[in-house]
Amino acid sequence: MASMILAAASITNPAFVPQNYQVFLLTMFIMVIQSFISSMPTKWIANFNSVGSTFNIIALFIVLIMIPAANTRADQGMPKFKPANEVWGDFYEGTSFPNGMAMLMSFVAVIWTMSGYDAPFHLSEECSNANIASPRAIVLTSGVGGLFGWLLQLVVAYTVVDIDAALESDLGQPYAAYLLQVLPQNVTLAILALTIMCAFSMGQGCMVAASRVTFAYSRDDCFGPLSTITNRVNRYTHTPVNAVWFNTLIGIAMTVLIFGGELAAGALFSIGAVAAFVAFTIPIFIRVFLVGDRFRPGPWHLGRASKPIGAAALLRGASLSEYSALFWFNIEHQMLGRSETAIEGVGDEGSSSSASSMKDGKRVGGDKVGKMA
Description:
The protein is mostly helical. Helix content is 68%, strand content 1%. It has a two-stranded antiparallel sheet with strand order 1-2. β1 (358-359) and β2 (362-363) form a beta hairpin. The chain is globular, with a radius of gyration of 22 Å. The chain starts with a helix and ends with a helix.
């Protein structure tokens, strides 16, 4: 979100190039604001999130219409939309891996989007009629989010002009660079403004969910002596304010990695999503293979389809875990300064390889795995 705000500033003032310290300070400021909102009474937070969720849906519809309608590809001497055979048949070679492996690895890079439907069960304790409301929210967020997210990806695929230029743009935000490629400046800024507001709402929702998880773990003394601080409920707001600010401090500390380069920051923030994926898979495994007929379904359940769907989820989880292990092994290989991917077994010859592949913590050439993650 901070990168998008600074990218919007760069679009209006091309002489301005965002620096890491500016991204850090703006991110910290945004997190503090979100923490204040997340510390409010539950009813206030619910109202804020309801408005934010509604706005997200409306903004998504607007963006899905505006990009195809206002794109300027024709003015640049290209067809208004890319041919279908290019969209569905061509591979963008953003890594040194074979195309099939790269496609599977792409699922790992965006696995963090699951934070949309894990929020309902983190917040289930604060829901009325949680045994129905929480699973309904999980199904709706995953189904609706997956469908419209896929539609947005199709819009991007059919309109993007130059992927490399978007990734390497001085704006520092590939989405903003893509919009500027295909839309007039005023439309680009309008869509960026909508996206920024949506990102703020989403980030605040994640802050609430994270604080409730911290609070729940603290009640079980998972954090040792620190639990006596983070398991307290504020007597005025009746919300776990200490847990909110604990997460804020951790988030700010993690954001410091932005000064270590793209690989360091990207590896940390993305590996958390992979860990969450493993955590989601464990209870499914217990339900499918260990509990058996002792499982007591609630009012919202999958019935006879529960075990087959659970088994399919485990299979998908196992396969993605395998690819993610290879993905992160390659990230570590790059962070050590190797110029090629670890799977190829080359690029380990010495310091000359290291010097050519890394500069100020960023990749210079080679695959774009770190950038895309």
